[in-house]
Specification:
alpha/beta, binds flavin-adenine dinucleotide, 8-stranded mixed sheet, about 35% helix, about 450 residues
Length: about 450
């Protein structure tokens, strides 16, 4: 039997060193805006609020430390992806609205680079694009369809033949690829911690080790006293499922990652990935990777089980069977990695709404605001959310506040046991769909049948 790997901190936290400690809330207080959650959603919101109206008193309340959640642990793709595709957005919100959202997402990728530059955040930001290889006929069919549709939405997606694809990423079994320039690689922990520092430099107060127990109109009740505020922003993503009144808004789904030791130049010559490009393939059960600034491969994927009752626990960040599957997949993609040491294994929960539709909004009647449900596309989308919330909270009517995800309400997730059964069946179906496609070479029937339950 394989030995169970020891839990490790994420590569990103290891590289960034111990987080800067900030004191908890020490007494009941009153502010203009109370933001709950110091991940990217909460911090981008505070950042753009402070920029727009420096006189506003903004307090960010965090139960652990800034960047503790998915924002400090993710795959580091600052992409233009939104969890709902453009065609589906057009069906529910109309074509012009879908076009506006696509344009806003593309611009967001560059906006993050601009903030890093202006604020001096050293997050290894590099705008290198994303390569999605097709490994097999069924994946190539999807690659072609994606490239054909993209142009209609203003998305630059280039279809590469086998030779061109292999020239950029020599993964095994590659028959072609799509490439989009609209993605940057980042070091997630450095991005979120740098942003926390930038936010504080602009006069925002962040309190750590302070747990919000209830978010209510006009106040946040915490385990360290009550914060009164004209506006309350919920920025808790996966943990939203632990808050009273929001338990069925999103489900926590785990994504897990591994990282190799730094690879020698010969390995990179064989793999071929240039710096700055992120990569994936066109399978159903999402995988994602990046070449890090120090020449490692950081690689992740879904497939970890959903836990009964939307439970979140640090123990769920470590799933030996998923780590082993990720290692197998990485080696299958790049046989040159045989014998390479895996130095880090980690994971975290992300948030998925019932229709997979991210949302941002403000209820003007109650002063309660929110953003989340990004699935695995939150690194950039949180930035768009932060700018949008800043506009909403300062009463501005802008192109951002008119985007179709503003005010979107997803229906609630089912109660247990249906939720547990449905989500885990969905995860299993995606694995089966990939096996089916490998065997038949045709787009999966399982995936088509299950698509209404998987949100796409
Ligand atoms: C392993 C992994 C890989 C991913 N890869 C990518 C990727 O490559 N690209 C991409 O775009 N997206 C990716 N994602 C998703 C992305 O990281 C998230 O969508 C994004 O970081 C969400 O940011 P957030 O601020 O909304 O939530 P989080 O970063 O999760 O922050 C929520 C914060 O709220 C705090 N909190 C929770 N409850 C309370 C409470 N009661 N009181 C006070 N504070 C509270 C938490 O401690 C946490 O700090 C990945 C996610 C994971 C887990």
């Amino acid at each position: 039997m394989r030995p169970v790997p020891e839990p490790t901190p994420s590569l990103w936290a290891d590289q960034a060193g111990p987080p800067r400690a900030r004191p908890p809330l020490d007494r009941a207080t009153s502010v203009d805006v109370a933001v709950v959650g110091a991940g990217l959603t909460g911090l981008w919101t505070a950042y753009y609020l402070a920029r727009a109206e420096p006189s506003l008193e903004v307090l960010v309340v965090e139960s652990e430390h800034a960047g503790f959640g998915a924002s400090g642990r993710n795959g580091g793709w600052a992409s233009a992806l939104f969890p709902v595709g453009a065609a589906a957005l057009a069906r529910s919100h109309g074509e012009p609205a879908a076009q506006s959202l696509r344009a806003a997402m593309r611009a967001t990728v560059r906006e993050i680079g601009e903030v890093c530059r202006v604020e001096g955040i050293d997050a290894d930001y590099r705008l290198g694009g994303t390569l999605a290889v097709a490994r097999g006929r069924a994946q190539m069919t999807r690659a072609r369809a994606q490239a054909a549709q993209a142009a209609g939405w203003g998305d630059a997606v280039e279809l590469l033949d086998q030779e061109a694809a292999r020239g950029r990423l020599a993964a095994s079994g590659v028959v072609g690829a799509t490439f989009t320039p609209d993605c940057a690689r980042v070091q997630p922990a450095r991005l979120v911690r740098g942003l926390a520092d930038a936010v504080e430099a602009r006069g925002v107060r962040i309190v750590e080790h302070t747990r919000a127990l209830a978010l209510e109109p006009g106040r946040v009740r915490t385990d360290r006293g009550t914060v009164r505020a004209r506006h309350v922003v919920r920025a808790t993503e996966a943990w939203t499922a632990t808050l009273p009144g929001s338990r069925r808004d999103v489900v926590p789904v785990y994504s897990l990652m591994i990282a190799t030791e730094p690879l020698p130049p010969q390995a990179w010559d064989a793999i071929g990935l240039r710096h700055g490009q992120t990569f994936t393939d066109h399978r159903h059960l999402v995988i994602y990777g990046q070449r890090t600034a120090d020449d490692r491969l950081a690689f992740g994927g879904r497939g970890a089980p959903y836990h009964w009752g939307s439970a979140i626990d640090p123990a769920f960040d470590h799933e030996p069977a998923v780590f082993a599957a990720l290692e197998r997949t990485l080696l299958e993609l790049f046989p040159v990695l045989a014998g390479t040491r895996i130095t880090h294994r980690w994971g975290g929960p992300l948030g998925v709404a019932r229709d997979w539709h991210a949302t941002v909004g403000l209820d003007r009647r109650t002063g309660m605001a929110w953003a989340g449900g990004y699935v695995g596309d939150g690194v950039s989308t949180t930035n768009l959310a932060g700018r949008t919330l800043a506009d909403l909270l300062t009463g501005r009517d802008t192109t951002l506040t008119r985007l179709p995800w503003v005010g979107h309400a997803s229906r609630a997730w089912e109660t247990e046991p249906l939720r547990w059964l449905g989500i885990n069946a969905g995860l299993r179906a995606m694995t089966l769909a990939d096996i089916e496609e490998r065997l038949t070479g045709r787009p999966s029937v399982v995936a088509r049948v299950m698509s209404p339950f998987l949100g796409h």
